[in-house]
Write a structure and sequence with these properties.
Layout: H1 3-8, H2 11-49, H3 52-159
Length: 169
């Protein structure tokens, strides 16, 4: 707050702020006392250890805890990797199954198309044979009729006497 804002506050508000700050100071003093006590306890513990080797043995619990935390972290990483590998394997299997079904569907469509094409070809061949047979029958009929007419004409020509050639003068 600025000094201008402080001047605008009434006596009651100022007293209230003073009380709140005193309470906060009291809490901070208690925390400081606890921290000093904890520091003193650590100093006593180190003094009681007698030597660096003994202090290291007492601190060994800290190292063991950090080793355990490290091991737990590594286990979690391994487990996560295993989960990822399982997911990848599952996704690969699904992809292969999907690809297989697509290939099977394509093969089925190919077989259907081949059947349809063969049926169309057979139908076209049958129609072509029918048309060629009908044309052959028509041509044969016309040839037979022509032959009959030719034979009749030949008989007629053989019946009619041939004019004699005039002798040359």
């Amino acid at each position: 707050m600025t000094s201008k804002e402080l001047r605008k506050l009434n006596r009651k508000d100022l007293l209230q702020m003073l009380i709140e700050q005193s309470q906060e100071v009291q809490v901070l003093r208690e925390k400081l006392a606890e921290a000093e006590t904890a520091l003193e306890n650590k100093t006593i513990t180190i003094d009681q250890a007698g030597s660096i080797a003994e202090a290291a043995l007492q601190l060994n619990g800290i190292f063991q805890a950090s080793q355990d935390a490290c091991q737990q972290y590594m286990d979690n990483v391994r487990q996560l990797c295993q989960c990822k590998e399982e997911n990848c394997a599952r996704m690969e299997e699904e992809s292969q199954a999907k690809a297989k079904s697509i290939v099977e569907e394509a093969e089925k469509q190919k077989a259907d198309m081949e059947r349809e094409t063969k049926a169309k070809c057979d139908e076209m061949l049958r129609e072509a044979k029918e048309q060629s047979q009908a044309y052959w029958d028509e041509v044969s009929s016309k040839l037979e009729k022509f032959m009959e007419e030719y034979t009749v004409l030949q008989k007629l020509l053989s019946i009619v006497p041939q004019p004699k050639k005039r002798e040359q003068e």
